[in-house]
């Protein structure tokens, strides 16, 4: 690397600003904490309020200067293996949206997996692009989407005429990686950029025990959430891009449109610090995290009634790599949903998980954990399982699964943007068959949209959503979260 990765130019500037003890006549109005209400000072401390600043302005010497940010972004670009890096304060959400808007305008097709994060659908609505969807297979054992297969990707490329970009999400929420080098080869063979939503893989590049990262695998651009699994403050994320197939100037302009005009300087500083930590010590830190996670996984799998997803998944189609630090755990055999397990862990054991759904809980093990954390998790799970078994827990009862097959994607009748902006009406779900959806409907699990704006609603989709509503599945997207009604194009 040509840049010294021990540097943290942005963080240093922020600390210098605080040390100089300025009298501030700039935003925010609490004036470096002096005017802040006592409760806020108690929550975050005066030291933090003294560096609660917007990026443009105070930290640099002149309002127009961008040298400091450019320097920090350039060091980060090198660390994550790209020509250009953009710091983002609106999460990977804003990175995905920036990429879609900069690559495809109204009516332009792009290839998109159906298990994309909802920021992708928002990007489609903003840009007007037409999605050509690739359906991932839902793993029947765990009820979560696997990644897309190379065969499905090849078919999409062959059939989606005039596609301007190929997007993939890797890893998935449960840590399943697609075969990125093969997919990059397919996209480049078709002359289109290959873009990876790597929100859950900011650590990959820094430890040899983890899956290959997007840029090494040949991506033209990737988004990665610095806040999700490494040390960035919440909302921090980076967008990496190479110039060969991406117009970096246009992308830079669009990135600005998706960010606040007052980006939080602390978020930038945290990206600087997190990148430094990973680039200088990532191998050691994540080797330890992998060891802790593998220890926890093995221990959970020894508990009667519990199971933790592991690298046996690599034998299944659509899973080319696996992040062992994601723990997906099920208590189905004890007759408990993921939500119930989450509640018991929180209320009885003081353990907060990353996510829960009907079937599973998901936990992140990172460089921030130590042995005592995973020991506490395992001891809590042992105690929990014993309690429920001793109370006549339904060992072997199987999951109260949501077993209905996901209904097939029908047809994209209009672009998501056209459907979103068309006049629409709210109809009882039972009357929606044959209509065009005006909204997104994503039940969890498996967290894949059953409908997006512009899609034809089939009788199978109505049946599925009726059952999902009856079972009280968590749903993201529609105005009516009970699923009794749906908004359709008029
Ligand atoms: C695959 C994927 N992409 C993008 C995002 C958005 O990330 P952020 O929360 O950093 O905006 C998420 C968030 O969970 C995600 O799971």
- Which superfamily, in CATH terms, is the homologous superfamily of the largest domain? Type I PLP-dependent aspartate aminotransferase-like (Major domain)
Uncertain regions spanning at least 5 consecutive residues: none
Number of beta-strand segments: 17
Mean pLDDT equals: 93
Give the distinct bound molecules. Answer: pyridoxal-5'-phosphate
What is the CATH first-level class name of the largest domain? Alpha Beta
User: So what's the overall shape?
Assistant: globular
The end-to-end span amounts to 57 Å
- Fraction of residues in β-strands: 5-15%
CATH architecture name of the largest domain: 3-Layer(aba) Sandwich
SSE-based structural type: alpha+beta
Describe the structure.
- By secondary structure, the chain is an alpha+beta fold.
- It has 3 domains: 218 residues, Type I PLP-dependent aspartate aminotransferase-like (Major domain) (Aspartate Aminotransferase, domain 2); 108 residues, Aspartate Aminotransferase, domain 1 (Alpha-Beta Complex); 74 residues, Ornithine Decarboxylase, Chain A, domain 4, CATH 3.90.100.10.
- It contains 15 helices and 17 strands.
- It has a 5-stranded mixed sheet, with helices on both faces. A 4-stranded antiparallel sheet has the order 9-11-13-12. Strands 2-3 form a two-stranded parallel sheet.
- Helix 4 packs parallel to helix 11.
- The longest helix has 37 residues.
- The mean pLDDT is 93.
- It binds pyridoxal-5'-phosphate.
- Pyridoxal-5'-phosphate binds next to helix 5.
